[in-house]
Amino acid sequence: MDSKSSTPVVALRQVRKAFNVGTPIETEILHGIDLTLERGEFCAVMGPSGSGKSTLLNIVGLLDRPTSGSLSVTGQESTELDDAALTRLRGHTIGFVFQYHHLLSAFTAVENVMMPMMGAAGFQTREMRERAAGLLESVGLAKWIDQPAGRLSGGQQQRVAVARALAMNPALLLADEPTGNLDTKSADEVFDLLRRFNREHGTAVLFVTHNAELATRCDRLIEVVDGRVTGRTTV
Ligand SMILES: Nc1ncnc2c1ncn2[C@@H]1O[C@H](COP(=O)(O)OP(=O)(O)OP(=O)(O)O)[C@@H](O)[C@H]1O
Asked: What is the CATH number of the domain that holds 63?
């Protein structure tokens, strides 16, 4: 293994997060999280409601900063970066899928998948469209690429959201209950897609779920309870 591929995709050391809930009162939500995610690892995150899973994902996704501790993403120490550098690192390294797809419903499926590429330098429109169409084909939506996203079913919309998350071929995919709003069949399909991309491209995945059956199909399961990682189970 060369030194680049042996660098973890994510490494958190003693990460704490407190929120101001009315000056000068602070509530600490994450209490010193240590977590490493290697290239190609597919890790489920479970835990009770309110335990801090989304807060953790927002920090790993560089959407929010830790109050203290260190967080490196693909070897770059995020706490040393300014907001513009964080945005660049996020855009090139991390894809997101949420419980609600957050697509722009008036735009077509292919336009939605092109969006992350539009924000990055160096893509020609034709190249973006071809890549987006290829991704939609790979998630089984070749026939729907020019359909407005708002006219697709819930499962189809979530598959568009997966294709959009993969548009920049991210090293890391953060999925916050991506199947939580879907029927069992669509949930299975979306999970299988994430698993397939993980295996084919070595994309590391943090997959927050309340679904114990899907969690057993991941490489690894961690549990967040009261802002601490408690379980470290290999499934
Ligand atoms: N911006 C904020 N300001 C204050 N408190 C916050 C903020 N964001 C989250 N919290 C609090 O942090 C705690 C953890 O919330 P979080 O959303 O991370 O939990 P979760 O484990 O993802 O829950 P769920 O499974 O219900 O989605 C909650 O008590 C929540 O109210």
From this structure: 3.40.50.300
